[in-house]
Amino acid sequence: MRLPYVENPPTNLSSDEEAIVERVKARRGAKGLIPLDLTLLHSPKVANGWNALLGAVRTETSLTVDILEIAICRVMLVAGAWHEWNNHVPKLLAADDFTEEKLAVVKKPLLNAQGALSDRQWAALLYAEHMSRAVTVPDNIFKQLGDAGFNAKDIVELTTVVATYNMVGRFFVALDVAESNEKTPEFL
């Protein structure tokens, strides 16, 4: 970790900042504050915005679990954000009808074969890959989203998930949150 974590529980907070901590804790539930929160709380107002955005992205989209987690996992793989990769692969494997065979495609460094993924899963994976590596998404990749049944709402939500988790991955790696940069990732 490149910055020390704030104390857990945080101290010397204004009443507004204490309310922010309570909102973060409410979203986390029984887990309580995690290393990410203890880093973000160096700037409580940023932590508040982060908490609201991630809460919406994680729980308020209409994307299926497999699509959501494929996007997140691919972003984390590209970013080398191993803490988040290790947290999200089990969620992906727990999605309905998701298998190790499908995960093998998500993990491939070069996406040149759809393998066992459905057309919808493959389109989401390619979209996350291009958004994460080049930012610009080629027309043929974008077209695959529509061909796979993604509507405008789905595309906005998928784009938001990929963009948000690119932020998450970069934050984790730049500050070495949870001290995972040098660790060998699980599930690879």
Commentary on this structure:
The protein is mainly alpha-helical and 188 residues long. It folds into two domains: 15-59, no CATH class; 65-179, AhpD-like. It has helices at 15-28, 35-40, 44-59, 65-79, 82-93, 100-107, 119-133, 139-147, 152-175. 35% of the residues are buried.
Key features of this structure:
2 domains, mainly alpha, AhpD-like, 188 residues, 9 helices
Number of domains: 2
Shape: globular
CATH topology of the largest domain: AhpD-like
Summarize the biggest pleated sheet. Answer: none
The CATH architecture category of the largest domain equals Up-down Bundle
Number of helices: 9
CATH class category label of the largest domain: Mainly Alpha
DSSP strand tally: 0
Any idea what the CATH superfamily of the largest domain is called?
AhpD-like
Helix coverage percent: 55-70%
Give the end-to-end Cα distance, rounded to a whole number of Å: 23 Å
**Proportion of residues in extended strands:** under 5%
The ordered H/E elements are: HHHHHHHHH
Average of the residue pLDDT scores = 97
- Give the low-confidence spans: none
If you compute it from the alpha carbons, what radius of gyration comes out, rounded to the nearest whole angstrom? 17 Å
- Structural class by secondary-structure content: mainly alpha
